[in-house]
Design goal:
By secondary structure, the protein is mainly α. The chain contains 10 helices and 2 strands. Helices cover about 65% and strands about 5% of the residues. The relative contact order is 0.16.
Length: about 240
């Protein structure tokens, strides 16, 4: 049951990737490229979990785990740059000065650099959720695999980058809703926030998979905003952002 759910989410991620690629081809600029790149391996986040029980605890699952974690840690902060770029395209006066865009870029780079050390520090360990098997950094008590003794709690990246990106895009989304009658970015960000929050509820069985459902929906709102605003001109800004 849970495996089927992750396979469905994998398929949704591929649909989002297709439209992100279509967006980039339609509006070939840095903004649309930075929407497309983080989506390249979002499907792997779900595919690795869905197929883990068949692959087993070997080198293949380990490799997919490192790739999906590291890609997430390094690519998600790029959306902070996208947030600033879309705000400029949407015509918000506060976003037009170049120093404002520079701040978005600085925050993104800071989040990327901050998470670099963790890829060499963490030890992945098996986690069993429903009929799935995956590698995780810290295993919840209700997902400890039969016969496994989990490692002591490890330090891992704080969710600050993910929360910051979501909140900033949510605020910009509500501003787009108010000014341009475009609700989709705000709605998808709220959905993502609710899904992520459900995953943090102790003992809530469906929280783990709901957190993954929220991601392609979140990106769908971002892609929709790209189609709506990425091709618009902007004042006081380079044509490539």
């Amino acid at each position: 049951m849970i495996t089927v759910g992750y396979l469905v989410i994998t398929a949704i991620c591929f649909v989002a990737l297709f439209y992100a690629f279509k967006l980039w081809r339609q509006h070939n600029n840095a903004t649309t490229l930075l929407i497309f790149i983080p989506l390249l391996f979002l499907w792997l986040d779900n595919f690795a979990i869905a197929t883990g029980k068949w692959i087993g605890e070997g080198a293949l699952l380990t490799g997919m785990t490192y790739l999906r974690f590291y890609w997430h840690w390094q690519m998600l902060p790029l959306l902070m740059i996208v947030a600033g770029a879309l705000a400029r395209r949407a015509g918000f006066a506060w976003a037009q000065p170049k120093w404002v865009m520079a701040l978005f870029c600085i925050v993104a780079v800071f989040f990327m650099i901050e998470d670099v050390p963790y890829i060499w520090q963490v030890q992945f360990q098996p986690a069993c959720y429903g009929d799935t098997l995956r590698f995780a950094i810290n295993v919840p008590a209700d997902q400890i695999c039969l016969g496994m003794t989990p490692l002591d709690k490890q330090a891992s990246p704080a969710p600050l980058p993910a929360i910051s990106v979501n909140v900033v895009l949510m605020v910009i989304g509500f501003m787009m809703w108010a000014k341009h009658k475009f609700p989709w970015l705000a709605v998808c960000c709220v959905f993502m926030f609710a899904c992520a929050a459900s995953g943090a509820i102790p003992g809530f069985y469906w929280g783990q998979i709901l957190g993954n459902v929220g991601e392609p929906i979140f990106y769908s709102g971002l892609i929709a905003a790209g189609f709506r605003f990425a091709g618009l001109p902007k004042s006081g800004a380079s044509a490539t952002v």
